[in-house]
Amino acid sequence: MAEIVRNAFVIGHPIGHSRSPKIHGHWLKAYGLAGSYEAIDVAPGDLAGFIADLQENGFRGGNVTIPHKEAVFELVDKIDPAAGQIGAVNTLWFEDGRLWGGNTDAHGFAANLDEYAPGWAGNGPVVVLGAGGAARAIIHALKERGVRDIRIVNRTLERAHELRERFGDGVSAHRLEAAGELLSDTGLLVNTTALGMHGNEGLPADPAALPDGAIVTDIVYVPLETPLLAAARGRGLKCVDGLGMLLHQAVPGFERWFGKRPVVTSELRNLVMADLGVRA
Ligand code: NAP
């Protein structure tokens, strides 16, 4: 009988920056599983051919990153509800002979908060700073967890309005200038803007305006302690960094390809932190 091949990939263009091979490679080794996970640079013009030949090339599935997250919609047989709502695919797998496209970023976001701030979804209104691709995944997660007051604040108001239209009830759109007032009764503040990343060190909002019981999370993870988290911690607020989102979003894919639900451990976290060159 032919051996069952369990190989997976991350495709993007470029792809050198991806941390996914570190994460999945660690789990393959930790669980002693036969299989591989490799980063493959696929140019946009080669995407359709790559997807068409997946099974022939021994792949069980893989991750999809920029710039293919939308283009791949046309190339799969089925889309899971999260990917449909978010408008982007980041994970591919075969099920009953069909190629599925899913999105695990919402799972990653919620699982990270579950680990470090249990009960977060019942903490009150949520302010989401930013209205890009990551914000879509986060608003999906918030709605799934039953949050009924989601306030999107974005520099370009039009993009916040687009997300309000997309997600409907319980979602409102605001300009940056309104943030101070909105924060006064906010239970969870989420930064999804690129502000706070190395080289872009501004503060997307001032946590001074938040109530004492608020939770603050930043999905930017380089640096791990962003200016927003440092300011919130200085105020004594509960803070959750963005690395856990990256690690937890990898869990559902690994389970689908390799048949084992992996655990996000401090060992994995330390490994990825060292790879990123960030300190706790
Ligand atoms: P995106 O689609 O390009 O959206 C970027 C957002 O940031 C937009 O809302 C943009 O506002 C806002 N922004 C950028 N520069 C700004 C500035 N100077 N002042 C105010 N707002 C600014 O990017 P994305 O895919 O959503 O990713 C956003 C960040 O999340 C990135 O840093 C990414 O690395 C991180 N991320 C982390 C994870 C994780 O697992 N932790 C997952 C996904 C993404 P406008 O609409 O006005 O341009």
- Helical amount: 25-40%
Secondary structural class? alpha/beta
CATH architecture designation of the largest domain: 3-Layer(aba) Sandwich
- Uncertain segments are none
Tell me the overall shape: globular
> How many strand elements?
12
Number of helices: 11
Mean pLDDT: 95
Oligomeric composition of the shown chains: single chain
Which small compounds were modeled alongside the protein? NADP nicotinamide-adenine-dinucleotide phosphate
Q: What strand order characterises the main sheet?
A: 2-1-3-5-6-4
Describe the main β-sheet briefly.
6 strands, mixed
Distance between the termini: 49 Å
CATH homology-level superfamily of the largest domain: NAD(P)-binding Rossmann-like Domain
Share of residues in strands: 15-25%
CATH class of the largest domain: Alpha Beta
Characterize the structure shown.
With 280 residues, this protein is of the alpha/beta class. Helix content is 35%, strand content 20%. It is globular and about 55 Å long. It starts with 6 loop residues before the first strand and ends with a helix. NADP nicotinamide-adenine-dinucleotide phosphate binds next to helix 4, helix 5 and helix 9.
Identify the notable features of this structure and list them briefly:
280 residues, alpha/beta, Rossmann fold, 6-stranded mixed β-sheet, 6-stranded parallel β-sheet, 11 helices, 12 strands, globular, binds NADP nicotinamide-adenine-dinucleotide phosphate, Shikimate dehydrogenase (NADP(+)), NAD(P)-bd_dom_sf, Shikimate_DH-bd_N, EC 1.1.1.25, NADP
